[in-house]
Amino acid sequence: MKIIASYGKEDIAMVYLAESKNGALVEFVESVQPPIPREKKWVLIVSTMDGCPVGCMMCDAGGYYKRKLTEEEILAQILFLVNRRYDHQVPVEKFKIQFARVGEPALNDNVLNVLERLPSLLNAPGLMPSISTVAPVGRNSWFERLLDIKNKYYVGKFQMQFSIHSTNQEQRSKIIPVKKWDFSEIARYGEAFVLPQDRKVTLNFALARENEADSTVIKKYFDPKKFLIKITPVNPTYRAMENGLNSDVDERGLVLKHREFVEELEKDGYEVIVSVGELEENKIGSNCGQYVQRHLSAQRKLADSYVFVDK
Question: Would you call 217 helix, strand, or coil by DSSP?
């Protein structure tokens, strides 16, 4: 894998743009969470596709799609970052690998092959893979195999996350414009996924003021003993701007219009995490939904995003 460019700050996040041996342009990220040192927490965010066929309303990576990345192309991103700092020995207490930069991981069987190989490739006691998915239909065998892999290699050390964004099914279909599992199917899978020693399954809301968020819908389908709610901002992307999506989470991590949604969930016993990363990551282009290649091709640039790319 040939590194073409890199952007960012070593003490926050770095975005890498690389060309694979097979000609794919690949983006991947490493980040830390100040003031937590890298030895305590280190996050890698890798791509699983060259482009993405889903096209979520707030994600800059959905503008084009070429193909799924091979097993070797996915591993190359991980091994480049690991070898750059640790040479296969990763003495990090919480070493998270998120398959969430570009591409829907559940549409690529090679993601599962990588998950099976990682324990033998890396000496990393703190390894915790993270899958974030919209749960596309027709991929039941993929999810069944993922469950087997988790039970074999990662019990208690796996983060499973489903993209929800809206509790209104019709609105959710507009935000995530592909056929996907409904809430009852996500709930059934989550119930089977979480063993007593496992982490809860995450239901993620990139929460815009325009999105519907009804706690009674969550309560109807999802057991608070097995599911938690994570609320994140709608990051400043080209797609969010074009689609008129305005974040309901401010810079302080406060939920504004949907504050009652959070309070009702907490009252009903749900663990609710409002997660706001380093604001400088928006300037780096490393946050969720951001995509450097979209910025490089844009004629009219966003004012406060991707600033480090232009330096």
Answer: helix
